[in-house]
Amino acid sequence: MTSVGHLETNYSVCRDLALQAANANCRMLFLPECFSLLGDHHSVSIEKAESLDGPAMARYTALAKELGIWLSLGGFQETGPDKDHIYNTHVIVSDKGEIVAKYRKIHLFNVDIPGGPMLLESRFTAAGEELVTCDAPVGRLGLTVCYDLRFPELYQKLRFEHGADILLIPSAFTKPTGEAHWEVLLRARAVECQCYVIAAAQAGKHNDKRESYGHSMIIDPWGAIVAKLEDPLATGIAVADVDLGYVNRLRATMPIEGHREMGLKALSGMRQ
To answer: 12: domain range?
Structure first.
């Protein structure tokens, strides 16, 4: 999707996507970072931020209950610890309309991109401090947001210490960084963790200052892309089946979890 600076417009698009997913008999829909709002200045995010029990989130929980579908809301402007900062919060909503998990983005995007914008997320966003997983009809989810993708140790912990089957990476990747790194990093996280990766992405021009790379995709634990939009900048859904039996068979055939534990013990001994 291509979010803009208007809550009503974005909700209308999200509702349409949820209807498409429900009509396709999907159990769960995954929306990108900034699904509800992407303004032309960080002050818009601060001004529109709400608590998770506020009216903005209530519309999405009601939507999930109405359609009987789980929602991954990839990055919501949650009221932060002070008046100058928000949390960038990934929220999981059940088909009963209940919030079952929330993850506040840990790694904040502070970069000056050659040929692109200078973005200082920490100027208006406070970092989270907790890893989050939760169980859903499609498997055990590991929650992250966008820039987290560049930090593999986060995904290693979600997989090997918290039992994730599916890694969620909702994003609003910039065009320059997306062209260079988006797909290769997503496929790497899938392969090294032997997990499905679901990467819902913002796409296209949001305003005069901001453009996102798009290319939403679903990747299986062997690193194969199993679903993506035919038009990588289009608004729409890509649908795939998650086969947890395949995950388990692959992990049994190539037991990297045990090999990893042996490697960590060896490295620990070397440090001593």
So the answer is: 7-271
